[in-house]
From TrEMBL:
Residues 1-19 form the signal peptide. InterPro entries: Bac_surfAg_D15 (IPR000184). This is BamA/TamA family outer membrane protein. It is found in: Membrane.
Amino acid sequence: MLAPVLFLFFMLLSLSAMATGRTAPGLSPVKHTPTMDGIALPLLSFSSDQGFGYGAVGGMYLYGDGTKAPYAHALSAQVFFTARGAMNHYLRYDGPQLLGPLRLEGRLEYRQEKSSPFFGAGNLSAPDFRGDVDDQKYNYDKGSPGLWVRLRGRPFGEKHPFQSYVGYGWRYTRVSPYETSILAQERPIGIEGGPSGQLLAGALWDTRDDESDPTSGGVEEVALRVSGLATFSRYQYAGVTLSERRYIRITPRLVFAQRLTLDMLFGEVPFFEWMTTGGVNVTEGIGGMGSVRGIERNRFAGNVKAFSNSELRFQAARMAFFGQPLALGAVVFLDLGRVWHPGVTDGKWHEWHPGIGGGLRFSRRAAVVRMDYARSTETGRQRFYITFGHMF
């Protein structure tokens, strides 16, 4: 399980050197500044929720005359499949300074899940679940083509921590419940599937020293999303997301990282939105490698979600691999989460769902490989995750 990920990571190192204009030993250095870079990589990952994942990702970067940073245009694409019948394909564009100081981002995508989890609503849902994520009682078949576009900028200058954005997202969700599933029995709002369009807006106060691997500072974010007839949606609802991410350097090698998230939905909310949060980086939960590790993906869902992630990150060693710097790190973590949903029993206020564990990190500049082992202290069940990028 570890070998293919390390193989991919070392490919990332060598390709990163190519993209920055460096050369491998024995080759002559490039004498000019490139106007375009291209990268193509295989993708390999693993999680206890989705099994092994495989595919490919590629990117093209246009620099133009070099006056726009970090590039003038970027185009990326992904084709990705998992062992449990899921797929995630996309085409994404990024223009950091396409419209003056405004950053234009957009994405076309198609997602499909033969076994998309649904355990019912609320903080105490599916009390008879015993850990079999392949049981059709707790799954349904879902397909969802979609798109989003976003304008993001720093109205007070590039050095100022304040950012704001507006955007639009649209998705058509196909829902096919299995006959014996909880979804077929409960038939919540959204069982018919259909289109859901959202107007998006948000603001961030970002004081991190590094966006991909921060060691100090933080990010505070408030995000809004509104869905209705005017946004080409079958459902009328609204959502608010509040998030705080904080990074404290304890020693030169030790960093404490903390994230707090509260997401609230109001109105005619389809059940497939109960699991999602808003913001620049959308997450799922409660449960899974994006919210509470050690708990099955989307194990608890509802109109109101709250979760906390605490990590102690230790940079164990730095080394050189083919002339490129490589950092090896270790992490221990505690995740907590719970939901509230109208019309169901959610338990006492202190009944949160914890996950604990640890992991390894391999990083090279903006590229981070994450490997985590987590355990639910409620059920004793264990989960493994191998993916890219820090959790937050």
